[in-house]
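REQUEST
  id: r-88c1
  op: predict_structure
  target: Metallophosphoesterase family protein
  payload:
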Amino acid sequence: MPSLSRRASVAGAVSTLLVCSLVSTAGASPGGERPDSTGRPTDGVLVRQSFDSLADRLQPRAEDPGIEPGTVGFTHEPPEGWSVETPGAMAGGGIEEWRGWSFTTREFWNDAEDQMRYRFGRAHDVIAVADSDEFADGGDVPETFASTLSSEPVDVRGRREVLLTFDSHYRGWEGQSATVTVSFDGGEETELVRYDSSTVTDDYDGAAMNANEEVVVDVPAGARDATFRWHFESGANSWYWAIDSVAVREAEGAPQGTPTSAWVVSDIQGDPDDLGHALEDLAAVRPAASGLLMVGDIVDTGSAAQWQEIDDVMSGAEGLLPEQVAAAIGNHESYTGEPWTVLRDRFLDFAGRDEVWGEYLLTGEGGVDVPVLVLGQEEARPPEVPMSEAQLDWLDRRLDHWSRQRTQVLVISHFPLGDTASASWIPWYHDHYEFNDRITRMLGEHPNAVILNGHTHYPLELGDWAVQRRTDGGHPDGFWAVNTGAVQVEWDARGESTDGISEVVTRDINRGLTVDVYRDRMVVTGRDFGPVDGATPTNDVNDVVREVTIPNPYVHSAQRRG
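RESPONSE
  id: r-88c1
  status: 200
  body:
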């Protein structure tokens, strides 16, 4: 299956028992303007292409029978410096909108037909699409669909390696293939990425949908420029490939120094045995961690007895636990039918705070400070996450503050924001927050922000486990959102159409994260601890599922190498 990161060589070819130090934020935000949030290449970007510059060139629907006449949303004209090659055999045949690589919007594309197209939740504004299925809805369809999208030449002089990243949404079929290649100075192409029946499960592969690709590319000595190409080829009426947010960056070397580390768990939901086991495994892999982040649904319904069970687990692990525990409230904290204030106060007693929101500062042996901002619902639902203006204003000020410090900041909140990490494209997850769009825009101005959410219990193996989410008017790098997995059971989605999506419990799991923050980057690792029960009180599982490295956008890569 496609991985979150690749390397291509091309040179030749909180518990009440613990003391938690909350950061006092009253009047703590220093004066001055917020850092530049829109144009500056804060992270060593050589070339960035979002396709959004084509928005004014989009044309009305031409032929697609699924799209209402007059609906605007496609063009075949690529961005300046880019090109599209499509064989002459496709000229005049099929549906005009999808004749080779097209530039469109997620909404226009989905209007043609859903079929999992809408799952490309990380897409922003204009995207590039090669769709043999929709193309085949017209007459005179050739036996083969083939098209190539080529980048502008990227200046790579004096560099030993670069990092290619792009968002990718691929649905495969027998005989279909998609590749990314690079050529230097107009020379021979070298393959970097391949999707076909040998690398992707045909028809549906969750790891290839709503995903991100990272490829470290070695630059041959003396090379001046590099051109990247996205090739898509299939038989008639196969599936599709969409990409967005292409960037070529300076590659970073190995991390330097000692990180500040944190453990992350969520969705325990009445499984204290699994929680105790997870804490033991986390202590085994990060014994010097500075914090434990508990991202909601710590108990199943919010009863006093359930909180006592969690307190017992925390007390039993007291010798293992980090100094600080930061807890976020989830929906399962308030399901007993008792008054909201009673249930909220039980959570606050556990968290050691006076509010459902707050700030912590983790500092490790290497001296790296990691601020943690905790968000949460303040009233009884609905909506699922009602929030006060005081909390929103506090969040805005603290994000501004930590951007001025050029420090990466963790935000923990039980629920996902819409179109971020796993399953948040599904309607009933999409708008849980009373101020979903406002919070998303706020985070989008801060490329140093990383939000961790639980709630969905979706597999860490999915392509949208970790999402770089961009916003209108925000920083071009947006912010990162990461799914925490779950200590309890795992869920997944079923269905072709978003309107008809259902969810199923797939298996018993016990999963969480470790976060390691260096001066110049954050490394988030998804981990599997394996569930335990009375018959199997322990196991040998303590595995890495996957990992993502999130650069500190305010530390230039040249400084990283130094």
